[in-house]
Structures are given as structure tokens and as C-alpha cells.
Amino acid sequence: MLLYGLHAVEAALRNPRRNIIELTATRAAAERLAGAISARALEPKYVEDTHEIADLLPPDAVHQGVIARVAPLPPVAFGDLAPASPILALDQVTDPHNVGAILRSAAAFGAAAVIAPEHGAPAPSGALAKAATGALEHVPYIQVVNLARALEQAAKAGYWIVGLDGEGEARLEEAVGHEQLILVLGAEGTGLRRLTREHCDVLARLDLPGEIKTLNVSNAAAIALYAASRARG
Questions:
Q1: Cα dihedral sign for 45, 20, 112, 126?
Q2: What's the predicted TM-score (pTM) here?
């Protein structure tokens, strides 16, 4: 996998679980990452022409003069997660920029993980890592074969599962005070699928005072995490 951008690459360099295969950078970018590079005892491949980096990436990628070829992170088992921290589960959220932004909020609020299905969610990628601004290195992004089955197993392990739904019967802030908590968010427009809804203990709505009653899923995730942090003290 290719990571690009200063934040994503620096976070990878500082993550002892991440194997860096090769680092390519302009000298200016390498200077900005000098501390992280030195800690790795890594010798970058220097380039004078940033086109050498851009040619390896999608046309719209903002690389800031640095790219790292990395190995996938070791998998994290659900049972290894901290039960006292909330978990986010994503149902058919397909945009890597949204998932990256959700990972960023998850890192900010100390979430234990972000869970998504293998099909119907983006795999870890440079675009996702760039949108996450380094959070992919801090919050486990766990892709499961079947989201409904994963929620069922979580319920058996004692998790309280809250699905966000505009027509939910409970107010969000009243539903998220449990210690072992999973917040489930669906795709914009379609929302949570029927089977996913059936595996939630409660469907909760976010009451918005303004004229606009819907939010981008990444914004909704941030508000849900904030509500959970307030409710749990």
C-alpha cells in the first residue's frame, strides 16, 4: 500500500506496528519529517522532481512531497479491543474520505475501533489514510465478512448497540451511556439496512434544531462520539 501526505506518513513512521518498506521524499518534505525518520533509522530515497511521486498516485492525490510503501498492519481481533471505549460500526459507508474522517473523529474521542464490512466499505488505502490524517495508525480499522453477525457476537459479549436513525425512537444522548457501546452508522440516503437495524438494541435519532435535518455521516459520527463521551462522564 502507498501512503502519502505528511500527516499520514509521519503517523506511519511513528507507529511501531507499521512496517515501512520504502520512503520516497523531496528533501524539504524529509526535513519536516526528520524526527520520525531518524527514529526509524530509515534512509529515504530523495527525488528532485515531485512528478516521480505524483506518477505513482491518483491524479487528485495531494502528496506534499512524500510517499511511503508500507505493509498492511497486523490484524486486530475484536476480543483485544478495550471494552470501556466506544466502537463505531459502518453499514455500507463506501466513500474513503468519509471513512477517513470518521477514523479521525474516532482517534480524537478515544474510540476503540471502527468496524466495517469487507464488501461495501473501502479497504485501507492511501486516500483513506490521507483523509484520516494519521488516524489509521491509531484506531484499528477492522473489516468483517458479515456486519450483522459481528454485531450479534458483540451483543453476546455484552455490548449495547445503538443504531443512528433519523426516525429513531430514542434521543441519541439518552441512549449512549452504556460502558460497552457500539454506535452504528449507515450510508447517507439509504441509512441502516434492515438486518443491521434488527441487530441494534435501540435506534436513536439526532435532534437538530435548524432547518437542515440530515448530516454527512462523518459529522454524525463525531456528534455521536461526543454525545457518548458526555453521557459516560
A1: positive
A2: 0.93
Please say whether the beta carbons of 205 and 166 come within 8 A. Answer: yes
Element (DSSP H or E) covering residue 28: helix 27-32
Q: Give 150: exposed, middle or buried? Use CB within 10 Å, 0-12, 13-18, 19+.
A: buried
Nearest to 3 by CA among 136, 116, 103, 108: 136
Average pLDDT, the chain: 93
Cβ atoms within 10 Å, residue 108: 15
CB 164 within 8 A of CB 227: no
Max Cα-Cα span within the chain: 59
- When pLDDT is cut at 50, 70 and 90, the band that residue 213 belongs to is low
Q: At what angle do helices 217-231 and 96-108 cross, to 10 degrees?
A: 20
